[in-house]
User: Fold Alpha/beta hydrolase from Dethiosulfatarculus sandiegensis.
Amino acid sequence: MLARKSFKFRHRMVPTVFSDQELAAISIPTLFLVGENEKIYSPQEALNRLRQKAPQIRTMLIPGAGQVLTIVQKEMVNRLILNFLKGIEIKCPGVSPAATGKHR
Assistant:
């Protein structure tokens, strides 16, 4: 009984699944990275679905990585994210680009 009170069972995390309409409605620049060895879902099916339903989302398959791609392929992931961010122009209603500056 003491053990039950001391240790809490962890609940399995279930990934969020967006509907086709929700994916198509994403209008901000978005980068989707997935490891080729992902086990929760098929990475190729996820990429194919995004390419069909939300072509505005930039997708990348990370070789030699699974769920912990930010650790296993950290240099590659960091470079991809930084390059993606460098390509984004800040667009805020009522604010001129000169006032916000550019990502470099």
Summary: The beta strands are 31-35, 58-62.
